[in-house]
Amino acid sequence: MMDKSIPDKSYFRIGEVSRLLGVQPYVIRYWESEFKTVRPIRTRSDQRLYRHRDVEELLTIRKLLYEENFTINGARKQLQRMRGEEAVTGRDPREGLLDEIEKGLRRIREIVS
Fold first, then answer.
1. What percent of the chain has pLDDT over 70?
2. Could you say which DSSP state residue 67 is in?
3. DSSP state letter for 56
């Protein structure tokens, strides 16, 4: 179940991740297609190798979907909020800061002119 800690390994095969999360491998592959933050490495034989951070991300996704009952879209937005990335509106929060800087520079230009 989710209470298991992630073993101290660099890479995990999909079967190991499946057991850690308590979901079938096809669910993990689906989440991988829906959540772009999960990007396993591919071996020459096209096997997926998940990094520790991928497994942590998948645990978070599982919690959002199964325990907090988010939809896929809602979980995606919640992950963005959790990371402080783009606001739900799609606007980059840094745009406000850039607007303020621009206003300040215009005031300085008016004073100097």
1. 86
2. I
3. H
